[in-house]
Amino acid sequence: MRPRGDPEDGALRRARWAITAQISVVVSLLVAVAGAIAYGILLAGQHADADRVLARTIQLGPAETPPGCVWLFTPVLHAPAGPPPAGMPLPGLAATVPSPGDVHTARRAIGAMTYTIRVENRGGVVSQAYFEEVYQIQDRSSLVFGLGVAEVLALLAAVLCGRVMAGRAIRPLADALRRQRTFVADASHELRAPLTRLHTRAQLLARRASGRDAEDLDQLVRGTRELGEVVEDLLLSAQAGDRPSLELVDLGSLAEEAVAAETVRAGQGQVRLAVTRERRPYVVQGVPTALRRVLSALLDNALGHTPPGGSIEVRLGVPDERHVELRVRDTGVGFPAADADRIFERFARGSDGDGRRFGLGLALVREVVTGHGGTIAAASRPGAGATFTLTLRRADAVSGGG
C-alpha cells in the first residue's frame, strides 16, 4: 500500500490540477474573447445606428418631430417642442464646423446621461442633434451581465471537464509509475536475501583467509556490502518514496575506498590508479551510498576508456572556502570537446560520426550530483584523456547558510 504523502502521488495530483487549470484558463480566455468581440460588435452597431438617426434628423430639420430620445437644435428652433434637457445645446460646438459641409461627431456626458452628438454645417446653418444612449447603455449592461454569467458557467464546466480529462490523461502515467514501483520493490526484495547470504559467506571466508587472499576477500565483502546498500536504497525508495536523509560524508574517504575497490581491475588492465589528496577532511552533506555510486561510475568510465599502460588519478582539493572539488583524470582515448555536455545525456551519441554511445552511467552521475546541489563538468579532446570535475558545497558552508 502506498503511503500518504507520497511525492509521486503528490506530483500526479499537482499535474492533474495543473492540466485542469490550463484547460480552465483556455476556456475562460475563449469565452472572454468571444464576449469582447460580441460587445465590440454591439457597441459599433449602436454607434452606427445613432449616427444614422442623427444624420437623418438633421436632414429633415426641426419641421419633423425627431425620433424618441433625440433632440435637434438650430440657431432659431429646436425640436421636439418643450424645454430641452438641462445643459443643451452645448456652447462652442458650432466652432467645430466652420465651413459648409463640415460634420463633427462626439460622445459627451451631460448630467448623468451620455449622448451621441452630431454637429453639421449645412449651407452655413449649423445644426446640433443629440441622441440619448439610455437604452443602448441598458443593452450593453445586459450583455455584460450575460457574458459574466456565461463566463462563470463556462469556468465551472471547464473545471469539471478538465478534472475528468486530466484524470484520463494521467491515468496511464500513474499506472506506469505503479508498475515501476512494484517492479523495483519486488526486484529489491528478491535480491536482498541472496545478497545477504553472499555478504555473510564472504565475511566468513575473509575471517579464515590470510595474506593476499584476505585482502581480496575484504574487497569482496566491501563490494557485496555496497551492492546491498544499493538494493536497500531501491527498496526504501519503492516503499516510501522519500528522499534519503543527508549525512556528513568525507569525500576523501569515499574516494580512497572507491579506488581500493577498483585496484584489482586496474591491475588486470595494467592501468595505474591513484588518489592525490591532502591529509585533511573533505566533508560534504549527502547520501553516502549515492556519492559512492558516483565515484564508482566515474572510475568505471575511466577504466573503460584507458588503454594498458595508462593512468587514472583521483585528485581532491578545496578551490575556495565554500566548496570541495574532486577530479577524475585519465590518459584514455578522450572525446571531442563538442561532446562535453552531451556525454551526460542518456544514451547520447558522439558528434564525431563514429556512432559512439555514452550510455546511462554518466547521466545518472549528473542527476545524483545535481540532486546534491553540486555540479559536474567534463573536459577532453581525442587521444588526450578526459577530466571529470565534481564540485560540492562543504558541509560547514551548507550548515552555515552561506
Brief write-up:
This protein is α+β, with helices and mostly antiparallel strands. Helices cover 52% and strands 19% of the residues. The protein has helices spanning 7-60, 134-208, 211-240, 251-261, 263-268, 288-305, 361-371, 395-399, and strands at residues 70-73, 78-79, 103-110, 113-122, 125-132, 247-250, 272-276, 283-286, 311-320, 323-330, 375-380, 386-393.
CATH topology of the domain at 243-399: Heat Shock Protein 90
Determine Rg (CA atoms, Å): 41 Å
- Number of distinct beta strands: 12
What fraction of residues sit in β-strands?
15-25%
Mean pLDDT across residues = 83
Catalytic activity: ATP + protein L-histidine = ADP + protein N-phospho-L-histidine
GO molecular function: phosphorelay sensor kinase activity
EC number: 2.7.13.3
Pfam families: HATPase_c (PF02518), HisKA (PF00512)
